Sequence to fold (853 residues):
Amino acid sequence: MWKWINSFAQPEKAYGACNFFMPFFVVVLLVCLPLGTVWGLVFAPTDYQQFDVYRIIYIHVPSSSLSLTAYMAMATAAFVGVVWQWRSAFTTMLALAPIGAVVCFISLFTGAVWGKPTWGTYWIWDARLTSQLILLFLYLGVIALYVSFDDKQQGAKASAIMAMVGIINIPIIKYSVEWWNTLHQPATISKLAKPSMPADMAIPLVIAMIGMAGYIGTVTLIRMKNELIKRDAHRPWVLQVLDAEQASGKPFIRPVWWAVAAVLFTIGAFFMVQQGVKFDSLAAFIDMGGRGFFVWLSFVVSFVALFILLVLSVLDRKTIISETRKQKTRVERIMRARAAKAAKKEAVANSS
Amino acid sequence: MALDSSSNSHLTAKIKTADMQSRAAANPSVLAALKAVAKRDFALAYRQRAELMQPLMFFIMVITLFPLAMGPNPQTLQLVSGAVVWVAAILSLLMGLDRLFRDDYANGSLEQMIMSPTPLYMVVLVKVITHWLVNIVPLLLISPLLALFLNMTNTMYLTLIFTLLLGTPIISLVGAIGVALTVGLQRSGVLVALLLIPLFIPLLIFATSAIEYASMNLPIGALLGIIGAMLLFTLATAPAVIAYSLKVSQN
Amino acid sequence: MPILAAQQLSCEKQDRILFQDIDFSISSGELVLLTGENGAGKTSLLRILVGLSSPNTGHVSINGHIIKKDINIATANIVYIGHKLGLSGLLSPVENLQFYMDLIGAPCHDTNEIFDVLSLLGLDGLEDLPLKHLSAGQQRRVALAKLWLNKSANLWVLDEPFTALDVATVSLLERHIEDFLKQGATNKLEVSEKTDNEETTSAETNSAKTNKAKTKLLDDSSVSGAVIMTSHQATSIDHHKTVFDLEFAW
Fold:
């Protein structure tokens, strides 16, 4: 079994594994993210303290927790890459870094926007937001380090070390920031001051979190595939796989999965609708109890950011594929030139 | 198959390393080599002593900026004194860390150290210690003057010294990791600072809190204890990471 | 047993395969000349063989120790002189070489030894100046002094060793390489020094000294060394050369 597991160190096998897991994450993304968001915005009960502006929680909390989980996943991939020298592990790490950074940014942005109506200010140095900010710096550090290396394999190793140093520091940072916060702000206001959330509020939150995890998984797999092709552009398996994909004309994922997603969404939507719409009219919905600006700003900016990341990742793939093909023709030209030179040399040697 | 035997070999490597360490401790030539590394680093520092003044001057100037920026009110200055000195110390030490491996990397001495029979993590530890001594002693010598600039009380100043003694080795050790990773890159000074500053935030928080507590005559033992624990942990883990980072940079 | 054995080495730099499936071994008394076009990966291969880089696949073992497992023991008996000198510009040649000998675990108790080698290499009078005050060729010669001072090495790995050297030093180095290949890291200089001093002593002590010198020669010549080198210029080393040619992988 170890031999089978270790075979995924090879980029070719890892690429196949990405294709294998892609439908799963896409389905989760398509089902849970819209479901959780709509449920939270429309069908979840109104909070008695914060009224409707609390609905930002359905984008803020998933992004907060998942930005940290993504970092842990990144550091684990880094660990696997360094200790067992799995090159494919480094691609996972590098794929996760920008995604985690974007999700972390969303958490900060939505947290700040939520702060204005609740606390009167866009930024407050509470333990959570401060820890998120430092997490964003750690993400940016990993990315900045990788980008400054010419030799990308060397850069991946360096980033991996940085990621692992970061993960060891994260608990220390969290502890110290919480401690610092209690030292300087005796009256801590926590956004989730409620001891427990009622089930009808918590369920859409969980669904939204699963949905965002599906998003992260999907985009990570797309970026992984991009990186695997880029790093191994000169190897024959890449061109074989790309040609095969082009020839078979297979869509992104097989139609059966779209059907599965549609079915699951319908089932979820059924339960969702049962909760009852919490708004009297469309105008009331947009107004969100007078706080519409903040709620919509949070959701729109977040989803735009997620969408842009997805689009860029997909466009990346097209660029990388065309670059790979260009590289192949370039190599062929060089080989031909060299062969011609060698033949000329031989001809001269023979004639003299 | 190959990786199966390597997982076994990781274990044997660990046993061998422990064996090697005990051998090295008993082996006089390893100690002699480490002494030579220290001697060389001190000699080089002495011959570059003009350059070494730069981080120190930076330290003094940054601290001088604050009264100029905030106004000379002694009460305000005292309130921020611990924070200002610590931030200035972190920035100044980060500037000085660049020297740690750069010259040795550029002239190939690092290659010779990697290939020598002395384990690299020991060489690295010695280099970091000598570098720290060379950088921290001037800082400590100039500190009374700066305490005066910022109107620190005696208790605050004593606490500052304690926190600097316990905390700056952490900066040198963790900083050395960042420097080791980027030694092959050009113009990596700012990048190293960007990588490392988030990692120093806990240290900064605990050190400045200790000074604040001291100013309010509250007990600081626990805080110094936390910094001490961080130092021990870093001392145990950083040298190996630094050595590995140097090898990655050599590739 | 070969001094160095490498199996299935492959190396990638900047997403380009430099070489793959390289098997390489060298035994005592062998001289291997590594050739290939610029950029074919000669320096990369040398660095992998001495443990400064790690290969993508394969492993290297030196004197029976695999580099990955025991790098310190494996690389302890190599002298590597690459493009960089491995010396500090602010220290003098003597200080640099003293440090080198401390580093390799053979602390130098008598600096006369170092002075003698530097004198042999034509650096009289320059021994105490900071290295950066010497010319490029002179600095190169200080780096080469390691080949005379490291007496426990049985493998020399030299990347373009004749760069910036004048004709006299080139020939001196070539003869030294020949001696190393024949009889290991004996300090032939030491032996000839003793014979020089004998002229002022009495006949009996003379023969005793010569005998001692001869015994020393016999003791140290147990294992002859091996040399791997690259060189753009043709060398006139009087020893059988194995040529290892690196071609572009793609």
Remarks:
- Residues 2-327 of chain A form one domain.
